[in-house]
Amino acid sequence: MSVFRSAFLVGAAVCLPLLGSVGLWDPWETHYAEVGRQMLARADLVHPYWEHHYFFSKPPLVPWLAALGLFISGAQPWGTPGTGPLPASVEWFIRLPIALLMLFAAALFADTVARYSSRRVGLLTAVVWWTMPLVCFLARQVMTDGPFVSCLMLALACALRAELEQHAARWWAGAFAAVGVALLAKGLLGFLPFVLVPLTWVLLDGRGAWARVRRVPWWGVPLTLSIGAPWYLAMARFAERDDEGRRFVERFFGYDHLDRLVSGVHTTTPGGTFTYFLEQGAFALAPWVLLLPLSVPFTPSGVEGRSRLGITMGVSSLFTFALFTASATRFHHYVLPVLPGLAVLLALALDRLVTEGFATHRPAL
Question: In sequence order, which residues have a C-beta less than 8 Å from that of residue 194 and are 6 or more positions away?
């Protein structure tokens, strides 16, 4: 069985059972699902609406996914208010698109890791990823963070595959398409792979990084913008205002991006230090946090593929940790983008532990 299929099955065993066994309980689950329902009821998939006003604080991907589940389940027809009791399985249908996106992304991510290292490391990556508590939570919730990190994993996996395989063009297309979808999931943070991949090249290849940049297809950025930009352009031209009297550009880019980074928006930890994400990261990783010391020497000598993979994932985790630590707004789920890189580093460490034995790594243990 391929690593992709095995990793998908591991994730499905963790993520899908009892997916709809409880109602939409997180405050944002009900919010996003209602925005999706309003899109169907108003027959308008472009302009998010909630209760009695427009909703400009988040991109549309999660409401679109919720709307898809509502429509398939029959809970909300197109263009009608919707009446009568909701189907018993409505929560399952609303959460399923988000779960499937994470399952596919994690499986491709693990399969890519296997191609750079070994089948065992790829499978270990899937096992570590799907046994992290925060991953289990957010893969099963209607929130923006799960789809955003799924797109981040897809973009990184496709970029790595483009370096490795002969048919690079299709993998670059996948990477740039994933970034375009990420823009619709989490706003400007969707451009994160555009920073992580070149930064890794600079660290690994020095001046040779420019040669790698020149091999990237010229049509990549236009592909990303063709997917992510149309909704933003339509909303920028939209004249209506939200419940606080703000138009889209002011609310989305000014308040929910700039102010969130600089002064804090809705934060539960005002003035918190970087130790907040150390603590939340430890909770998110448990029990794997106990093995983090093993993942420090993640660049085994003489194995170029594993070395590039380890450095790429180390840069991914360190950069995203620094980025979200610099933000004045702090929530526990902001640490999720740090975890894909750590999952790979932990898988590489576990593989070394199995191969080289406990005695070699006794100080770290």
Answer: 179
- What the block records as the tokens of 140 is 């099963």
Residue with tokens 């955003």: 148
What gap in Å lies between CA 101 and CA 105, rounded to an integer? 6
CA 308 to chain centre: 22
Distance CA 167, CA 217 (A): 12
Longest dimension (CA), the chain: 67
Number of C-beta neighbours around residue 237 at 10 A: 9
**Residue whose tokens read 């027809």:** 77
Contact 195, 323 (CB under 8 A): no
pLDDT value at residue 264 = 65
**Other residues' Cβ atoms within 10 Å of the Cβ of residue 83:** 6
Taking the model in full, what pTM does it have?
Answer: 0.94
C-alpha span between 42 and 78 (Å, rounded)? 8
Helix, strand or coil, per DSSP, at residue 61: helix
Q: What is the pLDDT of residues 131-152, one digit of tens each?
A: 999 999 999 999 999 999 999 9
> How many angstroms separate the CA atoms of 18 and 231, rounded?
34
Q: Per-residue pLDDT tens for 214-252?
A: 999 999 999 999 999 999 999 999 999 998 899 999 999
* Sign of the alpha-carbon dihedral angle for 164, 166, 171, 172: positive
pLDDT at residue 362 in the model: 73
Could you say which DSSP state residue 360 is in?
A: G
Q: Which residue has the tokens 């460490």?
A: 349
Task: Determine how many CB atoms are found less than 10 A away from the CB of residue 41.
Answer: 19
CB 334 within 8 A of CB 266: no
